[in-house]
Amino acid sequence: MPLCEYVAQGAYNKHVLVNTYSGDIIVQSLPATIIFGLYIEFGRPNSGILNPEIEVIISGKVHLKAAMSFGSEGKGVIVVQSFAINFEKNSVLEVFVSSAGFQKTKAISRTITVGAIPGFVPTA
């Protein structure tokens, strides 16, 4: 499940994930507002996953919840195109996935910290 800045609808039932995050997130200073998007594929035929839910949790507090109903096929996607989070301090962003009859699972965990951004050269 990738964490990115934006999820766009592409042609022919495809999606475009823009600026995908790899690893923890470093910002120049806090407070900072960061834009995120989520793309989550669920299930396979007859998996039993019918109503998956996701929760985005920031340092222990629920920030966003999303749910989807897949009907009898048990497969599909949840797309959260774009959402902003304001971080006041170093934090942990976690994404949990759950569905009735299945254990709640941590799918993503990223720390947000202040530091030097690799490859970034500040201008005066």
- Provide the domain count: 1
Mean pLDDT comes to 87
CATH architecture: Sandwich
Any idea what the shape is?
Answer: globular
Our Rg estimate from Cα atoms comes to 16 Å
What is the CATH topology descriptor?
Immunoglobulin-like
Low-confidence stretches: none
What does this entry look like structurally?
The protein is built from no helices and ten strands. Helices cover 0% and strands 54% of the residues. The protein has one domain (3-114): Immunoglobulin-like (Sandwich), CATH 2.60.40. It has strands spanning 3-4, 6-9, 15-18, 25-27, 32-42, 53-58, 61-67, 76-87, 91-98, 105-114. It is mostly beta strands and 124 residues long. The termini are far apart.
Features:
single chain, five-stranded mixed beta sheet, Immunoglobulin-like, 124 residues, 0% helix, mainly beta
What's the quick description here?
This protein has 124 residues and is an all-beta fold.
Task: Note the topology.
Elements: E1 3-4, E2 6-9, E3 15-18, E4 25-27, E5 32-42, E6 53-58, E7 61-67, E8 76-87, E9 91-98, E10 105-114
Parallel strand pairs: 4-10
Antiparallel strand pairs: 1-5, 2-3, 5-8, 6-7, 6-9, 9-10
